[in-house]
Amino acid sequence: MIGMTARIGKSWLWILLLADTVLVIGLGVATGAGRGLGSPAVAAAVAGFVVLATVVTGVEIRRRRRQQLAAYRELHARRGEGPGQRPWGLPGKLGPAELGLLADRDRGALLGVIAWLRAAGALVSHPRHPQQQVAAGAAPNDRLAAVLVRVAAGPDNLYLPGLSPLRHHGPERPAAIDKELAALRERLKAQGLLRDIDVSDEFTPRPWHTPWPVAVVALGLVAAPLVLLADGGLTAAAVLLTVAGMLTWTGRPITLPEHRGAVSPDGEWVLVEARRRHDRSSNDPRAIGVTVALFGDDALEDTDPELHEIVRNRNFYQFSADSLTDNGV
After folding, report:
1. What are the angstrom distances between the C-alpha of 16 and each of 8, 22, 154, 174, 237?
2. Prediction pTM value
3. How do residues 37-51 score in pLDDT, each as one tens digit?
4. Which UniProt keywords apply (predicted)?
5. Local confidence band at 302 (pLDDT 50, 70, 90 cut-offs)
6. Neighbour tally for 73: CB within 10 Å
7. Nearest 5°: phi and psi at 264?
8. Can you give the chain as a three-state secondary structure string?
């Protein structure tokens, strides 16, 4: 029964509720039972149904929370698994792209490399449109840097608001940038600094965690027309409102904040060591990019005020896709 109810989509139950509501209204108009209160026995039965629905809804919500907490604990345990050997030589060898991706995902990698390229003179702002970066020199020896300079040398230049893959600002991010970011993630995984954490098999989102909410909703859909004929419109409306409340508060799938691409314990150690060892006062262009990659917007304000102004005005890829989704954007 659980497997059967798991396949019943919430949208179908909303459709049935709407159809049932139309049926109740039609019966009320046809029979003149659109108002009034009937026998105490029917009213007591409806009150019992409301209590039953409330209890089942509470149990379902509590069960969902327990399963979600279990999923969080499993993610935390898997994130903590590691070989226990520190990659001692890596903190000083990684560049802005690698350190930025570890510190702030795609946004950190892009911002660190762009700050590096601007400090090196390979990118400059368009004279009339500062949101666009124009290629002004050769790219340093870095794969992501080379892709960004190549895009900036194209007819559309490097359009900073367009770096978001969510297309909130203008055109879609160029496929060449997405391809290089994916390759960068694979290299970090090969070094043990980034790792996939996927618990989708163990915690597959399901619309229903027990069969009881579906059974109660089905009971309410059948009972509403009968209550209307026996007792009038007010008690039937109470049944339908209770069913709508159950559909609103139950049937939400288990959601996980992060399924893949988590920074490993070794990756966290590399970030701590890189921040500890890095000289923020260096004027070397690569060092400036590393500073921005490691320390984010605060460092950007000191090293590149113009680019910081673009970021501050939300004309750059501000947030990760996961955080935007979590906040309902």
Report:
1. 12, 10, 54, 44, 15
2. 0.59
3. 567 777 788 888 889
4. Membrane, Transmembrane, Transmembrane helix
5. very high
6. 10
7. -75, 170
8. CHHHHHCCCHHHHHHHHHHHHHHHHHHHHHHCCCCCCCCHHHHHHHHHHHHHHHHHHHHHHHHHHHHHHHHHHHHHHHHCCCCCCCCCCCCCCCCHHHHHHHHHHHHHHHHHHHHHHHHHCCEEECCCCCCEEEECCCCCCCHHHHHHHHHHCCCCCEEHHHHCCCCCCCCCCCHHHHHHHHHHHHHHHHCCCEECCCCCCCCCCCCCCCCHHHHHHHHHHHHHHHHHHHHCHHHHHHHHHHHHHHHHHCCCCCCCCCCCCEECHHHHHHHHHHHHHCCCCCCCHHHHHHHHHHHCHHHHHHHCHHHHHHHHCCCCCCCCHHHHHHCCC
Q: What is the pLDDT of residues 54-92, one digit of tens each?
A: 898 888 888 877 877 776 776 666 655 555 567 777 888
Tens-digit pLDDT profile for residues 148-189 = 999 999 988 998 888 877 655 456 788 999 999 999 999 998
Res. 23: pLDDT tops 50: yes
Nearest to 13 by CA among 207, 224, 225: 207
Of 118, 140, 109, 153, the C-alpha closest to 307 is 118
pLDDT band at 134 (very low <50, low <70, confident <90, very high): very high
